[in-house]
C-alpha cells in the first residue's frame, strides 16, 4: 500500500524538489550554503519525502527537533 501511495505521489515529490531547486537558484545559493533544513507540515512525516529532500541537500541530516505541525505557529 505504501509503495502505491509513493508511486501516486511521485509527481508531487518531484515538483517539490523543483521548487527547492528554483528557490536556491533565485537566491543565488548552493546546497552547501544551507546550514540546516527544517521541514514543516504533516507531509514531512512521509519517509520518502524526507529522504528525497535530504538527498537534494547532498545527504544533509534534516532537523527533526521541532514539531513539524506547530513550528510555523510558534
From TrEMBL:
Q: Which domain of life is it from?
A: Eukaryota
InterPro entries the record matches: ATPase_NBD (IPR043129), Heat_shock_70_CS (IPR018181), Hsp_70_fam (IPR013126)
Q: Which GO terms describe its molecular function?
A: ATP binding; ATP-dependent protein folding chaperone
The entry's keywords: ATP-binding, Nucleotide-binding
Is this entry keyworded Nucleotide-binding?
yes
Tell me which PANTHER family the record gives.
HEAT SHOCK PROTEIN 70KDA (PTHR19375)
Can you name this protein? Answer: Heat shock protein 70
Supply the source organism for this entry: Peronospora belbahrii
Amino acid at each position: 500500500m505504501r509503495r502505491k501511495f509513493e508511486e501516486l505521489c511521485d509527481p508531487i515529490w518531484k515538483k517539490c524538489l523543483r521548487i527547492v531547486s528554483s528557490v536556491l537558484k533565485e537566491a543565488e545559493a548552493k546546497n552547501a550554503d544551507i546550514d540546516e533544513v527544517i521541514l514543516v507540515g504533516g507531509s514531512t512525516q512521509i519517509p520518502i519525502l524526507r529522504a528525497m529532500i535530504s538527498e537534494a541537500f547532498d545527504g544533509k541530516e534534516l532537523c527533526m527537533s521541532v514539531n513539524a505541525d506547530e513550528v510555523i505557529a510558534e
